[in-house]
Design brief:
The chain is mainly alpha-helical. Helices cover 45% and strands 7% of the residues. It has 14 helices and six strands. The longest helix has 43 residues, at 39-81.
Length: 409
């Protein structure tokens, strides 16, 4: 059967619809507020804000430190590279086992750099803290810290020289080495054999020991002698290296002219081949005075020639037992490769050289000519003959016999 639903029953099952409240257009378009976020989301946002603040601070600090470091680096590099305070060249002595800090302070105290700290940091920045070497250095005017670092790293310290001329004895070389105040230490207790030290200029740094110089000079001479001895011509009347150096020392003492050394050597070689005595004045001097040498104002006298010694080649056959001086390279080369001549005599010619002869007769004429030159020189010098002893002990050249010494001057 049709019946109308019971309104009371329908109302019991559902709520009555709410009345519709009219809105304006602007109110209808306004967004509806969302639900309130839970409490934990508020806490997460605060944590995120603190992290951002810290990171911003950290980045700012890094930028600031980088700027400061850049400024410091620029200043340090500029100071390290810029011209130094020295107005003139100066020397500085860096002792052995000196640390970088000690070296930097030394340079600052001596006015070579303006700031020891900058120098120390600069050397470390270039990785040269342990590369600086001891020694005495000459620092140029205006040298920068970088240039000074390079100088100390190179080890190119100031070098001093000791010149030993050809023809001096080992004892005379020892006197020169002992007197050099740049060298250190005692002299060796024993001297090397005569002729065993090189005639040359030695270069060394301050603080080098005297023993080191002696050792180097003997080693250099041995290398020199051995190299020339190996290249000698065949047929020399010399049985060993000692005789080779001995004859070279006689040639060294007889002439200082390079253009006649090989010819002087030939005279002595020819005499040895013929069994003639060498009759060399320098051997007489060494036999009497030894390594000390003859006083410059004392001439060779007839009594000197007649004095028997193992070195007097007027009295002995062949060569002396040892060299009479340290020969140089030129004299050694002359003996190893003498001129091919038949000369047996030579005498001074008045010009600093010698005139040579194959025969005694020719030689006597040369000697007479030299005597005339000597006489003229004596007259020009106005030397009074009245005060001189003209007795038996007079200069050998005044009354030498017919067989004049090969090196009579």
């Amino acid at each position: 059967m049709n019946s109308t639903p019971d309104q009371s029953a329908f109302g019991a099952r559902s709520e009555a619809p709410k009345p519709i409240v009219p809105k304006s257009a602007s109110e209808a378009l306004r967004p509806t507020p969302g639900p309130t976020p839970p409490e934990r989301r508020k806490h997460s946002n605060r944590a995120r804000s603190q992290t951002v603040v810290f990171l911003n601070f950290l980045m700012s600090a890094i930028v600031f430190v980088t700027i400061i470091a850049g400024v410091v680096l620029w200043y340090g590099k500029t100071s390290f590279e810029t011209r130094g305070p020295l107005t003139s060249n100066s020397t500085v002595m860096v002792k052995s086992n000196s640390g970088l800090g000690e070296i930097a302070s030394l340079l600052e105290r001596n006015g070579l750099i303006t700031d020891a700290n900058v120098f120390r940091l600069g050397v470390r920045a270039y990785g040269n803290e342990s590369a600086l070497k001891a020694g005495e250095y000459e620092v140029k005017a205006g040298a920068s810290m970088h240039e000074i670092m390079d100088l100390l790293k190179s080890g190119k310290s100031v070098l001093y020289s000791l010149t030993v001329p050809e023809g001096v004895t080992v004892e005379q070389v020892f006197q020169r080495i002992a007197a050099n105040d740049v060298l250190t230490g005692e002299m060796p207790a024993t001297m090397p054999p005569e002729g065993a030290m090189v005639a040359d200029t030695q270069r060394f740094a301050r603080g080098t020991s005297r023993q080191e110089v002696v050792d180097k000079m003997t080693a250099d001479q041995k290398r020199l002698v051995d190299s020339i001895w190996e290249r000698r011509v065949d047929g020399l009347p010399l049985k060993d290296v000692n005789e080779f150096v001995t004859l070279a020392s006689i040639v060294e003492k007889e002439t200082g002219r390079s253009d006649e050394r090989s010819r002087v050597a030939a005279v002595f070689i020819n005499r040895l081949n013929k069994g003639m005595r060498l009759q060399s004045d320098p051997t007489i001097i060494y036999g009497i005075y030894g390594g000390k040498g003859k006083p410059a104002d004392k001439p060779i006298t007839r009594s000197d020639i007649d004095t028997p010694t193992p070195y007097n080649t007027y009295a002995i056959n062949g060569l002396p037992p040892t060299p009479i001086a340290n020969p140089g390279r030129a004299a050694l080369e002359a003996v190893a490769n003498p001129s091919r001549t038949e000369d047996l005599y030579f005498v001074a010619d008045g010009t600093g050289g010698h005139v040579f002869a194959k025969s005694l007769e020719e030689h006597n004429r040369n000697v007479a000519r030299w005597r005339a030159i000597e006489k003229a020189q004596a007259e020009e010098a106005k030397k009074a003959a009245s005060g001189q002893d003209a007795g038996a002990d007079q200069p050998a050249g005044a009354d030498a016999g017919a067989d004049q010494p090969a090196g009579d001057q």
